[in-house]
């Protein structure tokens, strides 16, 4: 039977009734994948690492301007002199990551969007985390926001862990392994879980001043205590 739009929400509510008020407040998930290739998504991700979003977008704008008004394809990026990339605003470590991305994309390690559709989430994680400067979290963001994969719960993400803390009323954020165990029964709709946990974390940030927030380090809270079976 084909999946309906309501099926993920029913699944969440069945496992965790605390999602009911979130669904009421935030409505259905609004996740529209960006129409970009995995290569372009990773190029953007590398540019954004450890930078404010506006600063990263300014650098990407200068890169596009240097390449005729659009972001460079792998061959063009590989050919760009490092001096040009430094002048655009990339650090030496990011230049090394970009050059590796260009080489791996040319070699076919970074798949096209069509080729990526034939690979599982874990296969893509294993394949792409071999790139310089690309970790699991970066690939998980690609899976959600570029490829539209429905079953991704990024357990290392601060917003996800903070959203879980507010959902359950825990004093501390969960450890990633414990959060993964809590999230496992929500498969195959864990991206929907992620969306609501992000919304909840954002809402809490707006309501409470930073000084009133719980400690941001990983705590010993154990997910699962609030779930109704």
Concise description?
By secondary structure, the chain is mostly helical.
Identify the notable features of this structure and list them briefly.
229 residues, mainly alpha, Endonuclease III, domain 1, 2 domains, 0% strand
Task: Give your account of this protein's structure.
The chain has 229 residues and is mainly alpha-helical. It has two domains: 7-31 and 153-212, Endonuclease Iii, domain 2, CATH 1.10.1670.40; 38-145, Hypothetical protein, domain 2 (Endonuclease III, domain 1). It is built from 13 helices and no strands. The protein has helices at 7-15, 19-26, 38-48, 53-66, 74-79, 82-88, 92-106, 113-116, 121-128, 136-145, 158-168, 176-183, 190-207. The chain is elongated and about 55 Å long. The two termini are 25 Å apart.
Q: How many whole angstroms does the radius of gyration measure?
A: 19 Å
Average pLDDT level: 90
CATH topology of the largest domain: Endonuclease III, domain 1
CATH class of the largest domain: Mainly Alpha
Secondary-structure-derived class: mainly alpha
- The domain tally reads 2
* Total beta-strand segments: 0
Distance between the termini: 25 Å
Largest sheet at a glance? none
**Architecture of the largest domain in CATH?**
Orthogonal Bundle
Strand content range: under 5%
Q: DSSP helix count?
A: 13
Q: How would you sum up the global shape?
A: elongated
The CATH superfamily label of the largest domain reads: Hypothetical protein, domain 2
SSE order, as H and E?
HHHHHHHHHHHHH
Low-confidence stretches: 211-229
């Amino acid at each position: 039977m084909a999946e309906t739009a309501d099926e993920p929400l029913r699944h969440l509510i069945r496992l965790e009734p605390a999602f009911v008020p979130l669904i009421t407040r935030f409505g259905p998930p609004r996740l529209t994948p960006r129409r970009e290739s995995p290569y372009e998504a990773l190029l953007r991700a590398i540019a954004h690492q450890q930078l404010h979003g506006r600063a990263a977008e300014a650098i990407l704008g200068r890169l596009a301007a240097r390449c005729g008004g659009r972001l460079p394809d792998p061959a063009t990026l590989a050919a760009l002199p490092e001096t040009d990339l430094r002048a655009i605003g990339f650090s030496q470590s990011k230049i090394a990551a970009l050059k590796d991305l260009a080489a791996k994309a040319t070699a076919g390690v970074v798949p096209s969007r069509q080729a990526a559709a034939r690979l599982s989430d874990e296969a893509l994680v294993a394949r792409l985390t071999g790139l310089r400067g690309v970790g699991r979290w970066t690939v998980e963001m690609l899976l959600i926001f570029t490829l539209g994969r429905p079953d991704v719960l990024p357990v290392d993400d601060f917003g996800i862990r903070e959203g879980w803390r507010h959902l359950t009323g825990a004093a501390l954020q969960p450890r990633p392994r414990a959060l993964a165990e809590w999230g496992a029964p929500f498969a195959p709709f864990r991206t929907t879980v992620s969306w609501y946990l992000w919304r909840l974390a954002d809402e809490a940030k707006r309501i409470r001043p930073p000084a009133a927030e719980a400690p941001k380090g990983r705590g010993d809270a154990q997910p699962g205590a609030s779930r109704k079976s």
